[in-house]
């Protein structure tokens, strides 16, 4: 299922936005012009990663500082804590995510 998230111009480079789709929290990031979709709930305490600090292609959870690689969903602090990724892209001036 393809879901429209926002207008392309509404997500600036180095920023994130969170949406709830089918009872799932999904974060959408723009890093160096590329759009990424990522499970938004940190595996530690379920804090929303869209509110975290982005540095390069890594997001750091605002609650307890767990770090995740945005393109792959890999947790840099706990090997078992990988997040699900979702295809995300720009089409017709909007950002979309496939869930």
List the helices and strands and how they pair.
Layout: E1 2-7, E2 15-21, E3 24-31, E4 34-39, E5 53-55, E6 58-60, E7 67-69, E8 85-86, E9 88-91, E10 94-98
Antiparallel strand pairs: 1-10, 2-3, 3-4, 4-8, 5-6, 6-7, 9-10
The tally of strands reads 10
Task: List unreliable stretches of 5+ residues.
Answer: none
Mean pLDDT: 96
CATH architecture name: 3-layer Sandwich
- The total number of structural domains is 1
CATH homologous superfamily designation: Rieske [2Fe-2S] iron-sulphur domain
**CA gyration radius, whole angstroms:** 12 Å
Q: Could you give the distance between the termini? A: 5 Å
Q: Percent of residues in beta strands?
A: over 45%
Pattern of helices and strands: EEEEEEEEEE
Task: Provide a quick synopsis of the model.
This protein is mainly beta and 99 residues long. The chain has strands at residues 2-7, 15-21, 24-31, 34-39, 53-55, 58-60, 67-69, 85-86, 88-91, 94-98. The strands form three sheets. The chain has a four-stranded antiparallel beta sheet, with no helix packed on it.
Walk me through the structure:
This protein is mainly beta and 99 residues long. The protein has one domain (2-98): Rieske [2Fe-2S] iron-sulphur domain (Rieske Iron-sulfur Protein). The protein is 0% helix and 47% strand. The chain contains no helices and ten strands. The chain has strands at residues 2-7, 15-21, 24-31, 34-39, 53-55, 58-60, 67-69, 85-86, 88-91, 94-98. The strands form three sheets. The chain has a four-stranded antiparallel beta sheet with strand order 2-3-4-8, with no helix packed on it. The model has no long low-confidence stretch (mean pLDDT 96).
């Amino acid at each position: 299922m393809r879901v429209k998230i926002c207008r392309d111009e509404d997500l600036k480079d180095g920023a994130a936005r969170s949406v709830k789709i089918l009872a799932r929290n999904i974060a959408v990031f723009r890093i160096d012009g590329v759009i990424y979709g990522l499970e938004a709930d940190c595996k530690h305490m379920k804090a929303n990663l869209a509110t975290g600090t982005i540095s390069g292609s890594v997001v750091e959870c605002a609650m307890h500082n767990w770090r995740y690689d945005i393109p792959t969903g890999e947790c840099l602090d706990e090997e078992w804590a990988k997040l699900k990724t979702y295809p995300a892209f720009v089409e017709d001036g909007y950002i979309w995510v496939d869930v």
